[in-house]
């Protein structure tokens, strides 16, 4: 299979895993990606991928750790730097020798140096795996800072120790003193390389600015090159490329920040670019892990040389030992620095640090570097070591996924933001005053009502995001049910020829606007079924209707169409209200009341001939004008809240940032009605002239 096909399949796999994570929100996305990788590994795609550890480290891990360093809370990490250094160096070495000697005692046929190499591959905590596990959980900040800091620098310890173990395997000689000195010098030189790379980058930027050649795209490319440049330069000096990439990222985030239009544009582009890159690389990490599991699993599991139960027992024992060694090391640090009583009181923190020390793809990438031959002779135990490493890595992730939620304070619940809702309501109040007190045309009134609807949607979004996950799922399920009833009623009306294709599409777009608010948030399986699966089934069951409603007929709607749509909407609303009443024993009463009130409000708008006019006006430049006025009022309210002390300066700046983004997006929208509407209006005028 060609490279292009593999890239396309991997991109589809990452996208699909993200969709499945929304459908099954209780299932961590990294586990979905691992399972996706396992499925790919069993196909031709898996056999077509030749895993190159060095390429993996430089192309995926280096930029990810660079970004981790760039966004890390360095002052908070430095508060726990003692424990971080001990875990990143002492903890890794403790794990190397502990795991290595136990494995050698269980399987004496494997050379001790190879066993130490195995321990070195499983020594470092995987920063990507930790962040994927912990981002949904409410873990104490001090614990998270330790895990983040450890994950940034301990790869260098593991890789360097692994290289010495491999050298001992090939030469039969090993010096602990030489290994320690090499580890220290490798880390120091790597850090120096990071400093030098950032200094060179800053000097290059100064030269570009002196000749007035600033360019957002060029600056972005320079930043994207930094982790690779740091890694390769460090490798040239036989230093740690990982440390160099991390230090480069940390230094990239420091320094004086100028407030200019160019820097603001650069910041926006950089953030959005890195967000996409990080998401893609994180997905690749776990998909590759799944593919690697299939590559190393089958040869050993199907081999007659090893008992499967014996292998499974070894994997369980080594996984347990891995966590026990880490717990002992962390407990020793707490005992020595804080005494028995305080250390005992912090048992939960010690357990979180223990089970947060999960392994990831870096461990498998490291063990893949093991040579296939030793002194010209085959090394048959290599496949066995790959198998055990992969299984232990996967098992640590499973254990972390199960145990960490039990030890944490539950999942992260977004804090309620009542002040933003108050600001939105005051803006809505002023807009209503404009409608009541000013002499407005019907078009202007529709535009203001559309802006009010926009702010009401923002209130609903804030309210929904502040709910616990279970309540959010119920909220989405009820919304999905309403959308389903509405679509069924619309399709039935079209089948009975009560509306034509143009009116059908207008109502359908109205429903789509509502469904977008559901699909942008977490979907439960029921919501997914009601919104997507039923639509697919409807197309399969009624293909004729599907094509009829897409016939190229007139796109404009007249008063007769609006009257028909109003009748259909009222009929659908009655069915929705009946359905909601029947659900009072199933869902929370307050949620049902919320949706009943919302539907009745929409029915009042339709009765007053406002709902569809409010929707249609969004194609008009007048809507953009009134929307910008709404943002002006919002800024004004933010200033008032800040001056009165109702919100902090930090919160006010965050609110202003959101308004700026919304206004920028609104101004980028077409200022005129879409070409299709203009063309159809012209056609309608020509038709009238002919008649």
From TrEMBL:
Keywords carried by this UniProt record: Cell membrane, Ion transport, Membrane, Sodium, Sodium transport, Transmembrane, Transmembrane helix, Transport
Residue ranges constituting the Cation/H+ exchanger transmembrane domain according to the UniProt record: 11-406
Entry GO CC: plasma membrane
Topological relation to the membrane, as annotated: Multi-pass membrane protein
Keyword set includes Repressor: no
InterPro entries for this protein: Cation/H_exchanger_CPA1, Cation/H_exchanger_TM
Source domain of life: Bacteria
One annotated GO biological process: regulation of intracellular pH
Compartments in which it is found: Cell membrane
Protein name: Na+/H+ antiporter
Residues spanning the membrane: 78-103, 180-200, 220-253, 273-291, 311-336, 351-372, 384-407
Chief subcellular location: membrane
Alphabetized GO MF terms: potassium:proton antiporter activity; sodium:proton antiporter activity
Pfam families for this protein: Na_H_Exchanger
């Amino acid at each position: 299979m060609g490279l292009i096909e593999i890239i396309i399949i991997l991109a589809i796999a990452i996208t699909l895993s993200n969709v499945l994570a929304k459908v099954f929100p209780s299932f961590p996305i990294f586990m979905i990606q691992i399972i996706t990788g396992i499925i790919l590994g069993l196909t031709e795609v898996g056999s077509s991928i030749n895993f190159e550890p060095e390429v993996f480290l430089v192309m995926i891990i280096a930029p990810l750790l660079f970004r981790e360093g760039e966004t890390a809370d360095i002052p908070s990490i430095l508060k726990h730097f003692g424990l971080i250094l001990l875990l990143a160096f002492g903890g890794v070495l403790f794990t190397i020798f502990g795991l290595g000697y136990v494995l050698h005692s269980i399987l004496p046929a494997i050379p001790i140096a190879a066993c130490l190499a195995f321990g070195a591959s499983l020594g470092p905590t995987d920063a990507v795996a930790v962040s994927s596990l912990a981002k949904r959980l409410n873990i104490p900040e001090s614990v998270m800072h330790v895990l983040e800091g450890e994950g940034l620098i301990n790869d260098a310890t593991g890789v360097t120790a692994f290289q010495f173990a491999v050298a001992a395997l090939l030469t039969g000689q090993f010096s602990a003193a030489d290994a320690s000195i090499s580890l220290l010098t490798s880390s120091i030189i790597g850090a120096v390389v990071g400093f030098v790379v950032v200094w060179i980058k800053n000097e290059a930027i100064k030269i570009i600015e002196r000749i007035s050649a600033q360019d957002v795209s060029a600056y972005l490319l320079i930043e994207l090159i930094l982790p690779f440049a740091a890694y390769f330069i460090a490798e040239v000096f036989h230093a740690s490329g990982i440390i160099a990439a991390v230090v480069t990222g940390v230094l990239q985030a420091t320094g004086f920040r100028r407030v200019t239009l160019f820097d603001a544009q650069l910041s926006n582009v950089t953030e959005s670019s890195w967000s996409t890159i990080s998401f893609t690389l994180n997905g690749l990490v776990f998909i590759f892990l799944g593919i690697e599991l299939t590559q190393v699993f089958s040869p050993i599991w199907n081999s007659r040389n090893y008992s499967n139960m014996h292998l499974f027992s070894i994997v369980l024992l080594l996984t347990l030992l891995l966590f026990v060694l880490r717990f002992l090391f962390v407990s020793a640090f707490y005992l020595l620095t804080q005494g028995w009583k305080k250390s005992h009181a912090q048992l939960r923190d010690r357990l979180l640090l223990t089970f947060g020390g999960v392994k990831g793809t870096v461990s498998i990438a490291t063990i893949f570097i093991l040579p296939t031959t030793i002194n010209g002779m085959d090394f048959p135990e290599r496949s066995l070591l790959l198998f055990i490493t992969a299984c232990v890595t996967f098992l640590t992730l499973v254990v972390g996924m199960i145990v960490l939620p039990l030890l944490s304070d539950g999942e992260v619940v977004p804090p309620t933001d009542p002040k933003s809702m108050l600001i939105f309501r005051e803006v809505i109040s002023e807009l209503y005053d404009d409608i009541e007190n000013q002499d407005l045309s019907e078009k202007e009134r529709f535009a203001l009502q559309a802006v009010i609807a926009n702010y009401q949607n923002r209130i609903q979004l804030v309210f929904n995001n502040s709910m616990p996950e279970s309540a959010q799922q119920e909220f989405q399920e009820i919304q999905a049910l309403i959308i389903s009833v509405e679509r069924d009623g619309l399709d039935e009306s079209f089948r009975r020829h009560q509306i034509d294709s143009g009116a059908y599409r207008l109502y359908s777009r109205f429903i789509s606007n509502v469904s977008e608010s559901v699909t942008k948030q977490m979907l439960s399986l029921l919501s997914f079924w009601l919104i997507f699966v039923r639509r697919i089934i409807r197309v399969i069951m009624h293909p004729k209707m599907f094509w009829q409603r897409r016939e190229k007929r007139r796109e404009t709607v007249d008063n007769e169409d609006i009257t028909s749509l109003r009748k259909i909407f009222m009929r659908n609303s009655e069915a929705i209200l009946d359905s909601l009443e029947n659900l009072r024993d199933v869902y929370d009463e307050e949620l049902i009341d919320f949706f009943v009130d919302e539907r009745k409000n929409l029915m009042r708008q339709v009765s007053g001939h406002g709902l569809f006019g409010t929707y249609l006006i969004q194609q008009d430049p007048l809507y953009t004008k009134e929307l910008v006025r709404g943002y002006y009022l919002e800024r004004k309210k933010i200033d008032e809240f800040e001056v009165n002390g109702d919100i902090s300066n930090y919160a006010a700046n965050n609110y202003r940032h959101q308004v700026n983004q919304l206004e920028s997006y609104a101004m980028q929208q077409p200022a005129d009605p879409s070409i299709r509407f203009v063309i159809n209006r012209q056609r309608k005028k020509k038709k009238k002239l002919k008649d």
